[in-house]
Amino acid sequence: MGCLSTSTLFLFALLVFSSANAQSRDAWIRSCQAKDSNSSGSIGYRICTGQYLTVLESQQAALLKKVGIRFAEGADEGTDSKAAMRHLAESQKSWLRYVHEHCEIAQNMFGVGNASGDVIPGCMVSEYEARNKQLSRMLEGNYER
Asked: Is residue 145 included in any domain, yes or no?
């Protein structure tokens, strides 16, 4: 039995990390592919993953708006909603920079080949799913990661 390359192990770790959301993602992608016969195979997978990422981006925008509204409504006495909103905006900017760089690392470690076009979209989907869960928890008053 041969050894796995570093890039293969890195991709495997990325896939395992994102497995918590994989069922809903996989169901969405299967549904996307079933709707269009041109969306089968690896090209179709990339197209549907891109569409799923667009959905996640829209969900994130809506969540950020809801969290901003919640902060604007105020909270308990002694809290600073304006500062919280400012920090939310800064954390989102930092998060976007992080995701870009993190997914570029994944791409650079994976290299080139047939599946190389799947690395960045797959990485971004995983990161958007995690951030959207985090923002959802903020709506519930849970500000921990």
From this structure: no
